[in-house]
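Hi U.,

Before I forget, here's the chain from the pilot set. I'm dumping it here mostly so it's searchable later in email.
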Amino acid sequence: MAGSVSGPLVSTGSVSGPLASTGSVTLIGGGPGAVELLTVAAVTALQQADVVLFDRLAPNDDLTSLAPRATLIDVGKRAGSHPVSQIEIEDLLVEHALAGQRVVRLKGGDPYVFGRGSEEVLACHRNGIAVTVVSGVTSAIAVPAAAGIPLTHRGISHAFTVISGHAPLTDNELEGLALLGSTIVVLMGVGTLPTFSQGLLRHGMPADMPVAIIERGFSATQRTTVSTLSTVLADAAAAGVRSPAVLVVGEVVRLAFSGDTSAEELVARAAEFAVTDR
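Structure:
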């Protein structure tokens, strides 16, 4: 990528000088990876940026056009590989801002939904740097929608819970989710799927509860695997499911529509889920 700096870039410390020369930091939620889901505020900030620190799942394929004047720094993390640590990312934000530059931190999803955005905001505040947060379209909502799955539906689910699948949940958390009776959305949950699914079953969630795994949302290779709580491990293994993926657990999965269903099938299914009390 022209004008980019790939791989680890370690901060050499804060730049000294009067705060009058301090630049700014803008944390941008890039959504699930599709450029067209960037907000107008996000596009404007990228156009004005001097430096962009971007993540792996952020919309970064065309950053040279979106941020034509910026130095691009890849700080993306992958499972088991963090070439640039979180503290180094925060140091880079501070270093470039104190040098008087307009810095953009481009994240996937939303900065405040499992994005560690609040940690980066606090690092800026500790150094007297002005920081703005531009919310993004969270993949917790957008990716299920791309697979035709609503998170709420009258008479089926009136709430949804978004959890991180980064680490196994406690028994108390699993019990609470099983008793809640609403839609569950799991981000980064492929690795912990065995303990998650078995934990929900252990705490009484029905074995035939529908589960959807949506891989690579909004990409050309987006794929949805639909299963049940009792069979999802075998089905995921058979399908070769890999991260990144969003998991949806709940009756709303039965409403999934991938875009290739005939009109007759859609009419029949709509009748099945019709809400008579309006």
